[in-house]
């Protein structure tokens, strides 16, 4: 009963009421500039990145839910400037490129391929509506040729500074950057050293 009441209150507060007036165009958000420092990691050879996402993350709606509710909702007057799938893929590409080239296709079969799936990208409120988190869930598989080298599940939850759409955006930006950095650190620990460096060490 308490969760139902919280969902009702949040729905009225976050969705907004448009009865009797003309709706204004929705406010658009993206993940902002990629200004967060990246981890100090060694250089690596190029990788090919393939990216996919859950079906609900190919739209521009800003998803929120209460606790572990199975009923996700979207803000009525706020949207992403592009789909979460596109925003997260671009941010991952930008941050991983600090250690080495990120390609859209394999140059050869020997080029390592990183397959990333975005499974969750949403603002999750506590049952009382007094706090929320931006949650990002990535599932990654690293391939060498046709062989699976390793796989990694990355779940990051960042606290929202305010309990509204703007707070959700800030939390999801932080969670996306942290998830990207965890992905970079996993690659650094999993991939072989760059070929040039390895040959110099012989």
Determine the structural class based on helices, strands and strand pairing: alpha/beta
Rg over CA atoms, rounded to whole Å, is 19 Å
* CATH homologous group name: ABC-type transport auxiliary lipoprotein component
Number of discrete helical segments = 4
Largest sheet: 8 strands, mixed
Shape: elongated
How many β strands by DSSP?
A: 8
Q: Name the helix and strand elements from N-terminus to C-terminus, one letter apiece.
A: HEEEEHEEEEHH
Low confidence ranges: 16-20, 196-202
CATH level 1 class label:
Alpha Beta
How much helical structure, as a percent, in the residues? 25-40%
Please give the alpha-carbon distance between the first and last residues.
68 Å
| CATH topology (fold) name | Rossmann fold
Account of the 3D structure:
With 202 residues, the chain is an alpha/beta fold. The chain has a single domain (44-190), classed as ABC-type transport auxiliary lipoprotein component (Rossmann fold), CATH 3.40.50.10610. 29% of the residues lie in helices and 32% in strands. The chain is built from four helices and eight strands; from the N terminus they run H-E-E-E-E-H-E-E-E-E-H-H. The chain has helices at 2-15, 84-96, 165-190, 195-200; strands spanning 27-29, 47-53, 61-66, 73-80, 102-103, 113-125, 132-144, 147-159. Strands 1, 2, 3, 4, 5, 6, 7 and 8 form an eight-stranded mixed beta sheet that branches. A hairpin with a 2-residue loop joins strand 7 (132-144) and strand 8 (147-159). Helix 2 (84-96) packs across helix 3. Residues 16-20 and 196-202 have low confidence and may be disordered. Residues 1-24 form the signal peptide. It holds the Pfam family ABC_trans_aux. It comes from Achromobacter animicus. This is ABC-type transport auxiliary lipoprotein component domain-containing protein. Keywords: Signal.
């Amino acid at each position: 009963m308490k969760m139902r009441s919280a969902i009702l209150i949040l729905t009225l507060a976050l969705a907004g009421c448009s009865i009797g007036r003309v709706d204004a165009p929705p406010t658009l958000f993206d993940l902002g500039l990629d200004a967060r420092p990246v981890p100090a990691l060694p250089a690596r050879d190029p990788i090919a990145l393939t990216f996919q996402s859950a079906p609900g993350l190919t739209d521009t709606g800003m998803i929120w839910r209460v606790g572990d509710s199975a009923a996700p909702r979207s803000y009525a007057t706020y949207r992403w400037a592009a789909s979460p799938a596109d925003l997260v893929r671009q941010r991952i590409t930008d941050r991983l490129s600090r250690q080495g080239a990120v390609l859209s296709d394999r140059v050869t079969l020997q080029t390592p391929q990183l397959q990333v799936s975005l499974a969750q990208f949403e603002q999750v409120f506590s049952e009382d509506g007094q706090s929320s988190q931006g949650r990002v869930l990535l599932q990654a598989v690293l391939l060498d040729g046709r062989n699976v080298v390793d796989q990694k599940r990355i779940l990051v939850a960042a606290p929202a500074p305010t309990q509204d759409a703007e707070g959700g955006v800030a939390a999801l930006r932080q969670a996306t950057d942290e998830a990207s950095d965890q992905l970079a650190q996993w690659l650094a620990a999993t991939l072989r050293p760059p070929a040039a460096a390895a040959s110099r060490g012989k």
